[in-house]
Amino acid sequence: MIKSILLVACAGALGAVARYGVIVLSEWQEWNPWGTFAVNVFGCFAIGVLIAAASDADWFESYGRNLLVFGFLGAFTTFSAFSMDTLQLAQAGKMHVAILYAALTVFACLAATYTGLKLVNH
Prior knowledge:
The protein is mostly helical.
């Protein structure tokens, strides 16, 4: 149990730093939600690929799921930040952008997860 907690914690730290890097790079001009969007879509695609490609592997079941899914990707994807970005757009009077952003994010993340699964399980 301690090993699993340490794997999740260490990989989670790396995932959080990776998320921060993507978001900082996307905000070179001004605040925008597209870094969060990119992180969520990529993270959903990556989890689809991982589950499809490795879920039957011994390494994945013994430590890979904790390391990559719960740790790295759990910290990398940011639906809590997605929710805040959507609300901030709405509160800034950009309701149409908030609705578009929310709908596009949910659709793209579901599509990316499905694509990742199908890409490996073709």
